[in-house]
Specification:
two-stranded parallel ribbon; 225 residues; globular
Length: 225
C-alpha cells in the first residue's frame, strides 16, 4: 500500500491519519493504553515513505494483536504461554562440556532463585532434553502471574516467551529484574557459547538477528506501557 496520508496526529491516545482514526485489521480503533506508546506508534506511521512497510511498524503490529487477538479472550491467549512453565529453558541444562555447564549455572540460577522468591515456587532442574515435570504449584503460580497482565502486556510477553523459550525470563523482564539485551542473551546462551567457541555461521547469525529484532520490539512495547 502506498502512503495515502500527509499528517499523523495523536488524540486521546488514538492515532489519526489526516484527522481520521487508524483502525486495526478487525476494524477496531487503534487506541493505545499510554501516551508514550501512542507517540511511538505515531512515529512509526510518520516514518513511512512511499510504500507502507508493516515490517518496520512492529509496535503497530503488536498493538493490533493486543486489540484484535488478545483482548477478546485473555484466558485462551494466555494458556499456551503459561504452558512454558512446564518446560522452561532455564531448567534444562547441558551435561557437557564442563565450561558450558558452569556458564548455564552462573547465568540461569540467579533468575530461578529470583522467581522462586518472587512467586514462592521451586523448580526441577535436569540435564539433557528428557522432560522433567515441574511441581504443580510452580506451574499454577507462574500461570497466575501471567494471567494478571492485560492484553497489551500479554501481546508483548508472547514473542518474548516463544522466542526465548522461557516464561521465567519473560516475567523477569516484565518486572525489570533483567534488561532486554541480557534477557535475549540469556535465552540464547547455548547458541552464543557455541558461536564463540567454534565461530559464527552466517545463516545462524542472520536468523538470530531476526529473532532479536522481534524480541526487542516486544521489550520496547513492555517499556512503553
Amino acid at each position: 500500500m502506498k502512503r495515502f496520508y500527509k499528517e499523523v496526529t495523536v488524540a486521546d491516545r488514538a492515532i489519526l491519519l489526516d484527522g481520521k482514526p487508524v483502525r486495526t485489521p478487525a476494524r477496531a480503533e487503534l487506541i493505545l493504553p499510554t501516551a508514550a506508546l501512542a507517540d511511538a506508534v505515531a512515529a512509526e506511521w510518520r516514518s513511512q515513505e512511499g510504500d507502507i512497510d508493516p515490517r518496520t511498524m512492529r509496535l503497530t503490529g503488536l498493538s493490533n494483536a493486543a486489540i484484535d487477538r488478545v483482548a477478546p479472550d485473555l484466558a485462551a491467549f494466555t494458556r499456551p504461554l503459561a504452558a512454558y512453565a512446564e518446560s522452561d529453558l532455564l531448567c534444562y541444562r547441558a551435561d557437557a562440556p564442563p565450561e558450558l555447564i558452569a556458564r548455564q549455572a552462573e547465568a540461569w540460577d540467579p533468575l530461578l532463585d529470583w522467581a522462586g522468591r518472587r512467586f514462592d515456587v521451586r523448580f526441577t532442574v535436569t540435564s539433557g532434553i528428557v522432560h522433567a515435570p515441574q511441581p504443580a504449584a510452580t506451574i499454577a503460580r507462574l500461570g497466575q502471574a501471567l494471567a494478571a497482565y492485560d492484553a497489551f502486556h500479554l501481546a508483548a510477553l508472547a514473542p518474548i516467551v516463544t522466542i526465548g523459550g522461557s516464561l521465567v525470563v519473560a516475567l523477569a523482564l516484565a518486572e525489570d529484574e533483567v534488561d532486554p539485551d541480557s534477557a535475549f542473551d540469556l535465552t540464547h546462551l547455548d547458541e552464543l557459547w557455541q558461536a564463540r567457541r567454534w565461530g559464527e555461521d552466517r545463516l545462524a547469525l542472520e536468523a538470530r538477528a531476526v529473532r532479536k529484532r522481534d524480541f526487542m520490539a516486544a521489550a520496547q512495547l513492555l517499556d512503553l506501557l
